[in-house]
Amino acid sequence: MGKEERKLQVQCFVKHDAKQIFTGDNTPRLLYVSRQSVDASRHPRIMHAHEDYTEVVLITEGSSNYLIDHRQYAVKKGNLLVYNPHIVHDEVAGEGSEVETWCVAVGGLRMPGIPDNALLPADKGCVFRADVLFEQMKGLCEMMFQLLSGPYAGSATYCQGLLYSFLTMALAVAEIQEHPLIESEEEESVLGNRVKRYIDAHFREPLTLQMIADQLNVSTYYMAHVFKDMSGYAPMTYLQKRRIGEAQTLLIHTDQSISEIAYSLGYDAQSHFNQQFSRHVGMPPGEFRKHYVISKEVQ
Predict the structure, then answer these.
(1) Which three-class secondary structure string do you get for the chain?
(2) What's this model's pTM, rounded to 2 decimal places?
(3) Which of 50, 262, 276, 294 is the most exposed place for a label (fewest CB within 10 A)?
């Protein structure tokens, strides 16, 4: 056999013109990049939504069940999740439900035909398979995080280009997968969504099961039964998780005291709030806030 020929230089040529996706006032802005370890997922980010930005989450290890909007999803390594603004999402913690994730938060989106700050149309769904782009997207998350957490003067500029690449890949992942089947809503689903919307709009106020049922003009038993069948949670459990998720957001992103947060979310005593927070998250609110101090500096 002859000696194998060595390739001294290999070039990959650009075969097509680059498609400009982000033009005009559509200027995505990187807000933060975060990494959640498997250990951290045992203290989950409880049910919450974002008002004016989108989160794109890459599952890099493990599997779990997530409640996204009003549907339960089994997620696992290789999945890409897109949370448009106002999409309520919840991570289910517990033995065998640990995951490692990268999360990229982005504002300033103005995608054609889509509400401001959203990346995808509402009917496109939220859960996708990253498939062949998984390793590349993971690598982009790691680079953005490393740049933001290091002493690099131009890190924001470097990350802007990386963000465009990451979002372009996310759009490609969503585009090549079929639209989810949108089932016609039955009467029970309509009621379940009415309950969800009411709680989402009023979770900061003192609420009881009877008050919710009275507002919707249904019986408490029927309402609770329908809502649990739809979401997997009893209405009052959903209410508590919604409050705790909002408390986590305030602990991470504001300097409000724990007592101020408790009272703003409808708790009449901080001790009750501390008890509920520890039960859902696995640690008290003060300790949870300390765990995010470094993350806030990195962002």
Answers:
(1) CCCCCCCCCCCCCCCCCCCCCCCCCCCCEEEEEEEECCCHHHCCCCCECCCCCEEEEEEEEEEEEEEECCEEEEEECCEEEEECCCCCEEECCCCCCCEEEEEEEEECCCCCCCCCCCCCCHHHCCEEECHHHHHHHHHHHHHHHHHHHCCCCCHHHHHHHHHHHHHHHHHHHHHHCCCCCCCCCCHHHHHHHHHHHHHHHHCCCCCCHHHHHHHHCCCHHHHHHHHHHHHCCCHHHHHHHHHHHHHHHHHHHCCCCHHHHHHHCCCCCHHHHHHHHHHHHCCCHHHHHHHCHHHHHHC
(2) 0.82
(3) 294
pLDDT bucket at 27, cuts 50 / 70 / 90: very high
Question: In this structure, are 82 and 109 located in the same domain?
Answer: yes
Last residue of a domain, one of 113, 146, 176: 176
The domain of 39 spans 29-176
**What is the reported pLDDT for 178?**
63
